[in-house]
Protein: Oxidoreductase
Amino acid sequence: MMSYSNDNSNVECAFSSRDAIFSGVHLVHGVVKDVQPEKIVLSDGTNVPYGLLVWSTGVGPSSFVNNLDVPKSPGGRIGIDEWLRVPSVPDVFAVGDCSGFLETTGKEVLPALAQVSPITDKIIQEYPK
Structure:
C-alpha cells in the first residue's frame, strides 16, 4: 500500500513502484479513508484486504513496535538482517520506517525517507528464492 499526495514529482517513488511491480508486488495507490478489521477503505471506495496491518508513521517507533518482543535496532525499530528478515521470527520480514538493520549486520540504519525505498526494493529483488 502506498499513499501519495497530489504532488507526483517524486521520481524515486516512480522507480520504486516499477521495481516492486517487476518483483511481483501488487501496489495500490490511494488515500486511506478507514481501517477496518480485515480491510482498508480508500477515499475512492476501494477495499484493500489485508491479513496483518502495521501502521508506521512518524520519526519514532509506534507503541505497537515498542511492545513487540523482538530485537530492536538503534532507535528502537524492529531489528532486521541484511535480507530485511526479523531473525528471531521465522518467515517474518519488516520494511519501511518501522525497521532498521541490527548492529550485527554492520549496516547503518536507513533514514525514514521516501528516497530509501529503492534501496529496500533492490534488497527484496535480490533475495534468494
User: Anything to note?
Assistant: Residues 55-129 form one domain. Residues 40 and 48 are 5 Å apart (CA to CA). The chain has two domains: 1-53, 55-129. The longest strand covers residues 32-36.
